[in-house]
Amino acid sequence: xxxxxxxxxxxxxxxxxxxxxxxxxxxxxxxxxxxxxxxxxxxxxxxxxxxxxxxxxxxxxxxxxxxxxxxxxxxxxxxxxxxxxxxxxxxxxxxxxxxxxxxxxxxxxxxxxxxxxxxxxxxxxxxxxxxxxxxxxxxxxxxxxxxxxxxxxxxxxxxxxxxxxxxxxxxxxxxxxxxxxxxxxxxxxxxxxxxxxxxxxxxxxxxxxxxxxxxxxxxxxxxxxxxxxxxxxxxxxxxxxxxxxxxxxxxxxxxxxxxxxxxxxxxxxxxxxxxxxxxxxxxxxxxxxxxxxxxxxxxxxxxxxxxxxxxxxxxxxxxxxxxxxxxxxxxxxxxxxxxxxxxxxxxxxxxxxxxxxxxxxxxxxxxxxxxxxxxxxxxxxxxxxxxxxxxxxxxxxxxxxxxxxxxxxxxxxxxxxxxxxxxxxxxxxxxxxxxxxxxxxxxxxxxxxxxxxxxxxxxxxxxxxxxxxxxxxxxxxxxxxxxxxxxxxxxxxxxxxxxxxxxxxxxxxxxxxxxxxxxxx
Length: 521
Hints:
The two termini are 36 Å apart. The chain has 521 residues and is an alpha/beta fold. The protein has 15 helices and 18 strands. The strands form six sheets. The protein has a five-stranded mixed β-sheet, sandwiched between helices.
């Protein structure tokens, strides 16, 4: 049988439930429970990843191989190492069932080969999720309570401030205090934005041209400028600022009459982070706004003027011209997505793909020049037409897995059968020569053949898995060819938006280096 084992730790600690120890205990258990039946043993792990979701590289790699039919038994030490979410666990277990994979959990003595084991597995998963949610709720409630009192609840302090420990009623808390250099820097940034009547992107371009850099020595990005110019902590908490946030629909925790400008603003919940990926923005209705325990350094009038300027600069409109075929797919040699520039002329609309990074930061950031949309769109269509004429051409445009020569499973099975027959004949000979001196030689030969048999079974399992992977890739390629056929056949009936959507679903990578278009389906 082919075994997979999975281990996970949220934070690295060298104690009894480390990943190495999880693997060791799983292996020892299986060697006792399945003596002589372990044909292959694969280990997958994730260090410093939460069990609240399955966005883990090791877990995803394991499930991908499981879907290819490369596993018979999946073993974990504890259920919460695998997943702490009932929905995620149920989805993963459904895939295990679909591919006839047996699931074993050592800590809870769960084996899904029995009905009671399967039932216990779901019950334990539900309790693991409940425990995780209770812990998360307690931590969140505690942090929200501290934020509502105006304390700093963690993370790097905003620009212009530094962390400071204070003692309140005998308990230690953290607040933020202004730093003179940071105060001067932030006020200059806000004044520059207002005095020059700039947009965020215009400010980034102007700073780059003038060589103005951030405090860390690098050029500003639009994201950095936006974060600095919307930072609420430095602003005086006045009634006008209260009205600004109340109008946005935020949760206002402090009465308006207390907003006298003596302290700064504290906003909690502007972003959320459910996993190790970047923070995602939350709508203003999820923000908690209250009075801080720190001193402000930005006049409310100036801060509100900057917010009003950015609202004025914001522009939302529908595309004036049809969507270009490769919009959202085409990247330039620097890796940035290429945007589309359209201009109406007498003979029609002229459209160009161009690199926004080059446009904002100059030629030194990217050397790729703009190119007419029609030229690159036609190149992609030529590739599709070539595949339509000769479907085998698709192999030139798909990512190929590492080529390795695998043995023929049928030949390996023949060798396995021959070896098993030899072992059978030796076993019969051993029964006849039980008390003779020849018995030790027979036993020795049987042990050698048994070792050879295990190795042959492992090779056969690997060869079968490789073959299944090849079949899966061939099936995927065949589906892509059919989709290309349907696209070319009905291209005149599709809208520009529909054509763009189909191309985005077909093209995995598309890069233009100024001379050559690279396509990966």
